[in-house]
């Protein structure tokens, strides 16, 4: 039988030895330098390993991709806007008030009147007739009045169309009131008097083109009467002296034709004027009143209609005729004495047809004459 006291002693001693051994092991682990880093290095790199991968992926990678996007759009938009602007700009003539800073009114009016002399010889053909016709002939009587562009200051007779025999005639109430002449260019160059330009300032007009188109559309010959003077404004045409002269030419022409067995079917006046009013700044109110006053005496004696051809442009937009053109248009719309025959010259595309600063060449005059004749012929009616 085992001694219980001895057993207790041995058992307790074993427990004490086991505790000592465990303490020695813990001490040894704490005092060994290689044992501590072996656990820490495995945990320490785990934290930095996540953080470096997240930081570069977020901030620097997104910002460089956005920065170039703004300049890339701006360079393509800027040229587009600049390219669209020139197409939207339409050059307009310079108002007369601005032109006055470089040219005096006297200089402009002189230019509108007579800028150059003509060097071609004066054409003078024998009259077609001086005696009465055996049988009546129907004609339309048309006065061609205005300032230097109606005179044909910038024209060229050699480039004007030839009027066929029997399609048109010229009557000269001041220079030769008892005869009828072939209509040739320069039209009106052999006429004299207050409302006749000097021969050297008449170089080829729009009248021959007008007459050819009018005759083609109506089948009725035209007896044309010149009444032009360069550099004149509407107050000249409304003056008592000019009105008396114009009425005298009209009455003489009618009397001559009726006396010589012509049957006058229509009686018109074609008016191409306005440049001088524009440069002098005549108001629309005064301009319309002047024209109404100028032609009323003719209507009292049988005139049926005034056809207006508007002025065009001065070279390089030196000054504008817009106010006068607007006044003429309004007059034609509000007063049945007047009809707008043509505004073809008042087109920017016609600037290339200027012979000098303000006068149109023969090609432009031919176009204006034919355009106005088309309207007048429609008003007049006729066989064709």
Describe the protein's architecture and organization:
- By secondary structure, this protein is an alpha/beta fold.
- It has a domain of 245 residues: SGNH hydrolase (Rossmann fold, 3-Layer(aba) Sandwich), CATH 3.40.50.1110.
- It has 14 helices and 7 strands.
- It has a 7-stranded mixed β-sheet.
- β6, α13 and β7 form a beta-alpha-beta unit.
- α8 runs parallel beside α14, α10 runs parallel beside α12 and α12 packs across α13.
- It starts with a helix and ends with a helix.
Layout of strands and helices, then pairs:
Elements: H1 4-31, H2 40-43, H3 46-66, H4 69-88, H5 96-99, H6 105-113, E1 137-146, H7 148-151, E2 168-172, E3 176-182, H8 207-218, E4 222-228, H9 234-238, H10 240-259, E5 262-272, H11 275-280, H12 284-300, E6 305-309, H13 322-334, E7 338-342, H14 362-380
Parallel strand pairs: 1-4, 1-5, 2-4, 5-6, 6-7
Antiparallel strand pairs: 2-3
Helix pairs in contact: 8-14, 10-12, 12-13
Put the structure in a nutshell.
The protein has 384 residues and is an alpha/beta fold. It is 47% helix and 13% strand.
Question: What labels describe this entry?
Answer:
384 residues; alpha/beta; Rossmann fold
CATH names the topology of the domain at 136-380 as: Rossmann fold
Kindly state the percentage of residues in helix: 40-55%
Proper CATH architecture of the domain at 136-380: 3-Layer(aba) Sandwich
Tell me the β content: 5-15%
Assembly state: single chain
Q: What's the mean pLDDT score?
A: 76
Give me the number of helical elements.
14
**Cα-atom Rg, whole angstroms?**
50 Å
Rounded to the nearest angstrom, the distance between the terminal CA atoms is 165 Å
Describe the largest sheet: 7 strands, mixed
Low-confidence stretches: 9-106, 113-117
CATH classification class of the domain at 136-380: Alpha Beta
Per DSSP E runs of 2 or more residues, the count of β-strands stands at: 7
* Outline: globular
CATH homologous superfamily classification of the domain at 136-380? SGNH hydrolase
Structural class: alpha/beta
Strand order of the largest sheet: 3-2-4-1-5-6-7
């Amino acid at each position: 039988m085992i001694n219980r006291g001895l057993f207790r002693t041995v058992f307790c001693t074993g427990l004490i030895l086991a505790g000592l051994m465990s303490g020695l092991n813990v001490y040894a682990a704490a005092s060994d330098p290689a044992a501590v880093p072996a656990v820490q290095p495995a945990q320490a790199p785990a934290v930095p390993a996540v953080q470096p991968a997240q930081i570069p992926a977020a901030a620097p990678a997104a910002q460089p991709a956005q920065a170039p996007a703004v300049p890339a759009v701006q360079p393509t938009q800027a040229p587009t806007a600049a390219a669209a602007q020139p197409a939207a700009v339409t050059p307009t003539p310079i108002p007369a008030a601005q032109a006055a800073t470089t040219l005096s009114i006297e200089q402009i009016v002189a230019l509108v009147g007579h800028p150059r002399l003509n060097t071609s010889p004066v054409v003078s053909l024998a009259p077609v007739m001086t005696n009465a016709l055996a049988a009546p002939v129907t004609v339309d009587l048309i006065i061609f009045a205005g300032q230097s562009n109606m005179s044909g200051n910038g024209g060229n007779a050699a480039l004007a169309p030839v009027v066929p025999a029997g399609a048109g005639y010229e009557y000269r109430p001041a220079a030769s009131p008892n005869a009828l002449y072939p209509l040739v260019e320069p039209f009106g160059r052999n006429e004299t008097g207050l409302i006749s330009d000097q021969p050297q300032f008449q170089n080829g007009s729009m009248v021959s083109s007008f007459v050819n188109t009018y005759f083609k559309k109506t089948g009725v010959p035209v007896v044309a009467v010149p009444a032009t003077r360069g550099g004149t404004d509407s107050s000249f045409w409304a003056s008592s002296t000019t009105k008396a002269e114009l009425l005298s030419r009209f009455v003489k022409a009618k009397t001559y034709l009726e006396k010589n067995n012509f049957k006058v079917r229509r009686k018109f006046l074609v008016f191409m004027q306005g440049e001088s009013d524009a440069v002098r700044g005549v108001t629309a109110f005064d301009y319309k009143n002047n024209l109404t006053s100028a032609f009323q005496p003719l209507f009292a004696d049988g005139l049926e209609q005034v056809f207006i051809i508007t002025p065009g442009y001065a070279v390089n937009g030196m000054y504008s005729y817009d106010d006068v053109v607007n006044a003429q248009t309004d007059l034609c719309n509000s007063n049945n004495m007047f009809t707008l025959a043509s505004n073809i010259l008042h087109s920017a595309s016609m600037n290339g047809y200027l012979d000098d600063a303000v006068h149109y060449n023969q090609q432009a005059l031919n176009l204006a004459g034919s355009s106005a004749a088309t309207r007048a012929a429609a008003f007049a009616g006729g066989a064709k």
